[in-house]
Amino acid sequence: MCCFGVGYDVVWSDTPLARDLGIRLPIVQAPMAGGPSTPHLAAAVSAAGGLGSIAGAMLAPDQLRAAITAVRSLTGAPFAVNLFAPQPPPRTDRVAEWSTLTGVPLAERPPPPSFDDQLDVIVSERVPVFSFTFGIPPLAGVDAVILGTATTVAEAVALEEAGVTAVVAQGFEAGGHRGTFDRPVDRSLIGTLALVPQIVDAVSVPVIASGGIMDGRGIAAAFMLGAQGVQLGTAFLRCPEAGTTDAHRRAVGQETTVTRVLTGRHARAVRTPLVDRLESSTVDPPDYPLPRYLTPEPPMLVGQAGALSRDLPAADLVATLASETTILLP
């Protein structure tokens, strides 16, 4: 049995995926754009043996470079940078009507970051791991371990054909945006328990299970389904290193729903009175990401198992997750 000096066996963690990533524990901190993901959170998870992630999708190139520099100043361990695959330009024809509905006035905002410019930063900074969601971006010239998100078997197969190192299988339970890209979202709402083994059987690359995993029980279950790693987001929302707002922290564990009204793209978030009001209207939200800028409160993206979250420093949470898993997978 293998042990790395923290008091528990980690045989279950010695997977090809962990070796590809250069990490001791195949536990990935999900990238959570819009505030919760911070360089300190990513660095703490990576230093504890997992894989921390920078949520780079909403960052301008200079901000992205600064976040990478910050993580590297805190740890020499591998980490990931996540981007959203390029999306069509949003139409603006429904913006004025939505602004009237939400009560948030129209305002000038800087143009969204260019994906090509963001990718240039990733390439020039030679980040260890590049992860993406919302589709399949151009991957030529990316010298990194590559993780792509799938919500269906067909998406996983397409990702493998595109050359990813591993597939993140995102179950219906997961908080945040749905990564669906090959069909309407309502035809891709598959639970983690059903999705992971189907993807494992359909591709030859490692699979990372994501969605509803909060403790060692969930990690052990994912490994029993054939996953070689897990990705957790909601579990890290209450860590002190996370940039989660106080209101968001208090809301972890409340009822959630998959909705378009907060950002223009389907995402699992806390069901608030605002969400109910916007969903009950007859107004169709503008295209992603415009509703985010026309909402009086920031989206509180949370998974279905938030009630199992713990208020722990990130390193302690990673160690606890590993210890709990080892008890179940000796």
How would you describe this protein?
Helix content is 32%, strand content 14%. With 330 residues, it is an alpha/beta fold. The strands form two sheets. It has an eight-stranded parallel β-sheet with strand order 1-9-8-6-5-4-3-2. It has a three-stranded antiparallel β-sheet with strand order 7-11-10, with no helix packed on it. The termini are close together. The model is unreliable at 1-9 (pLDDT under 50). It comes from Phytohabitans aurantiacus. Pfam families: NMO (PF03060). Keywords: Detoxification, Flavoprotein, FMN, Monooxygenase, Oxidoreductase.
Briefly summarize what is shown.
32% of the residues lie in helices and 14% in strands. The chain has eleven helices and eleven strands.
Lay out the secondary structure:
Layout: H1 16-21, E1 27-29, H2 39-47, E2 52-55, H3 61-74, E3 79-84, H4 95-102, H5 115-125, E4 129-133, E5 145-150, H6 153-162, E6 166-170, E7 176-177, H7 192-202, E8 207-210, H8 216-224, E9 229-232, H9 246-251, E10 256-259, E11 267-270, H10 273-280, H11 314-328
Parallel strand pairs: 1-9, 2-3, 3-4, 4-5, 5-6, 6-8, 8-9
Antiparallel strand pairs: 7-11, 10-11
Helix pairs in contact: 2-3, 3-5, 8-11
Under the CATH scheme, which architecture would be assigned? Alpha-Beta Barrel
Mean pLDDT: 95
Low-confidence stretches: 1-9
What separation lies between the terminal Cα atoms?
9 Å
Largest sheet: 8 strands, parallel
Please identify the top-level CATH class: Alpha Beta
The structure class reads alpha/beta
Count of structural domains: 1
Number of helices: 11
Q: According to CATH, what is the topology?
A: TIM Barrel
Percentage of residues in helical conformation: 25-40%
Dominant shape: globular
Q: Give the ordered list of helices and strands.
A: HEHEHEHHEEHEEHEHEHEEHH
Main sheet: strand order: 1-9-8-6-5-4-3-2
Radius of gyration: 19 Å
CATH superfamily: Aldolase class I
InterPro entries: Aldolase_TIM, NMO
GO molecular function, one term: monooxygenase activity
Family: Belongs to the nitronate monooxygenase family. NMO class I subfamily.
Catalytic activity: 3 propionate 3-nitronate + 3 O2 + H2O = 3 3-oxopropanoate + 2 nitrate + nitrite + H2O2 + 3 H(+)
